[in-house]
Automatic annotation (TrEMBL):
Native source organism of the sequence: Dothidotthia symphoricarpi CBS 119687
PROSITE patterns with a match to the protein in the record: BACTERIAL_OPSIN_1 (PS00950), BACTERIAL_OPSIN_RET (PS00327)
Protein name: Family A G protein-coupled receptor-like protein
Intracellular or extracellular location(s): Membrane
Cross-referenced InterPro entries: Arc/bac/fun_rhodopsins (IPR001425), Rhodopsin_retinal_BS (IPR018229)
Keyword terms of this UniProt record: Chromophore, Membrane, Photoreceptor protein, Receptor, Retinal protein, Sensory transduction, Transmembrane, Transmembrane helix
Any one biological process term the GO annotation gives: phototransduction
Family: Belongs to the archaeal/bacterial/fungal opsin family.
Length: 312
């Protein structure tokens, strides 16, 4: 009885209260939809088929270059193989790096938060997952110092200048790696990038100024070759930070485009460089760097303890 009475009261009350109509809703002020603060699905920037195929192709090219440079070294004495050994290690390291990237073992995913500001609605945050190929930076930290060593030996630079150029180069590579993992919207990322560019200027300064001066002292023919191959190398190296700025830096270029751009530069800066250096070295006596001692002859018996002669 009580329940029936309560239901009857509710029905009468609902008849007295006006209900909202569709006309009233339509006449209300239109409000723009408020975007979500955090999207449900992040944007993924991963390697595609073109990038994957490029990694495998460059791996094979670097492997073939290493085999070719090794075969060239068999035709000359061990004391004159220094360029061949350095250049082979460069392409072999690159081959291992590209194998690691092609198999997915030299890559990690960097989570990037991008904040978008709006005038009349709350700010929104975009989440981007982008692959960073850290194996590439490991490659560069080994191969670029060896490339500098090749150029330094070719020019006849002293050990102090070669060492300082290599240190500046390592700073450039490592700060580039830090920048790739830098936080978005903070000075940190582009601060590391700026440090890398400054370090690169020191590399140019040592190779161009000190290297050019040392090469001039070895004759005009050698100087001309050093200027040509050194200028070629520095021109290619200048393209690397430009690619980085468009790829990992601002993400204007996708992962596949980044891979293809770096692949072309690596083949030119390592494979073509090595072939140019070794074939010219074979026909230009001024480029000879002959190393004796332990490098060519191994450990000799001088200074070793001979018990039979000491009467022990």
């Amino acid at each position: 009885m009580i329940v029936d009475h309560f239901e009857e009261v509710l029905k009468k009350t609902s008849l007295l209260l006006p209900l909202p109509t569709a006309t009233a809703t339509a006449s209300a002020t239109h409000v723009a939809p408020i975007p979500t603060v955090m999207p449900d699905t992040p944007i993924e920037q991963f390697v595609g088929d073109a990038g994957s195929r490029t990694l495998w192709v460059v791996f094979v090219l670097m492997l073939l270059a290493s085999a070719g440079f090794t075969a060239l070294s068999w035709r000359i004495p061990v004391s004159k193989r220094l360029y061949h050994v350095i250049t082979t290690v460069i392409t072999l390291t690159a081959a291992l790096s590209y194998f690691a990237m092609a198999t997915g073992h030299g890559v990690s995913v960097h989570k990037i938060y991008v904040r978008h500001q709006h005038d009349h609605v709350p700010d929104t945050t975009e989440v981007i997952h982008r692959q960073v190929f850290w194996a590439r930076y490991v490659d560069w930290s080994i191969t670029t110092p060896l490339l500098i060593l090749d150029l330094g030996l070719l020019a006849g630079m002293n050990g102090a200048h070669i060492t300082m150029a290599i240190i500046a180069d390592l700073i450039m590579v490592l700060t580039g790696l830090f920048a790739a993992y830098g936080s978005e919207g903070t000075p940190q990322k582009w601060g590391w990038y700026t440090i890398a560019c400054i370090a690169y200027i020191f590399v140019i300064w040592h190779l161009a100024l000190n290297g050019g001066s040392a090469a001039s002292a070895k004759g005009q023919k050698l100087r001309s070759f050093f200027v040509a191959i050194g200028g070629y190398t520095l021109l290619l190296w200048t393209a690397y930070p430009i690619v980085w700025g468009f790829a990992d830096g601002s993400r204007k270029v996708g992962v596949d485009g980044e891979i293809i751009a770096y692949a072309v530069l690596d083949v030119l800066a390592k494979g073509v460089f090595g072939a140019w250096l070794l074939f010219t070295h074979r026909s230009m006596a001024e480029t000879d760097v002959e190393v004796g001692g332990f490098w060519a002859n191994g450990l000799n018996r001088e200074g070793s303890l001979r018990l039979d002669e000491d009467g022990a």
